[in-house]
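Intended use. Records such as the NAD(+) diphosphatase entry shown here are meant for training and evaluating sequence-to-structure methods. They are not intended to support clinical decisions.
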Amino acid sequence: MRLRPFFSGGGLDRADHLRTDPAAIGRLCADSGALELVWENGAPAIDAMGRLCWQPVSGSPPLLLGLNDHHPRLCALPEDNGPIDARTHIQLLTLLAAEDSPTFAAALSLAQWHGRHRFCSNCGQSTEPNRCGWSRACTGCGAEHYPRVDPVVIMIAEHDGRLLLGRQPSYPPGRFSALAGFVEPGESLEAAVARELQEEAGIAVGEVRYLTSQPWPFPSSLMVGAWASAQSDSLTIDTNELDDARWFSRAEVVQALSGDPDAPFLPPPAAAIARTLLEAWVDGLM
């Protein structure tokens, strides 16, 4: 089984072997096919066709995103690289073409990471981009800091042919989606799935299966999709986390995914891995 969530795929050749070779990077910047990513309002700019916008290289951008047919794709770090609000990122995902989504995710996550790590967590001195933007080096103690992603489990629990979905207070009216939560230190993915379902919905689960994953650059998560077998359908909802949680039949999920205005719930948007999980469940890929 191979699922293809939004933001997945190879994207650019990341050319790790070039990141510690300043001479090679200098030659890449002078390459006639070199292009630099355009930024707009703190995010990679997207044209009317949903593709990323590129321009001729200006100076020596600190971030090498990778190679496209052996030609470099570089990136300056925008001044406005703080977190993007939920409404803005939904608008961006509505516009963005799937083939450019891996590059978009890498550029946005890295830019926001640089914005949050201007100072060393070891000694407090300032840091500078290093390794073509894939790390930062402290100007004081010399410590090197690398970008990290935050693993998040996102899961659909099934019981007797029905699927458990929940809604958070921030969702638009009627929307239900897969439950999710951050993986905690010292915890396996399977344990995180079981814990989150117990904490948020009060259900115990047996078998847990990994399904697929998706980068989520708001700001820098890795969504790990899973299926779990619930041992009962009795719910105890944590109202601090969820407004509601319900079991839905396959027919109801099909109705929602089809866009039927009379469907019992509004499904997650196409770019969300939760949508991929629902579609896979309906197609019997579990």
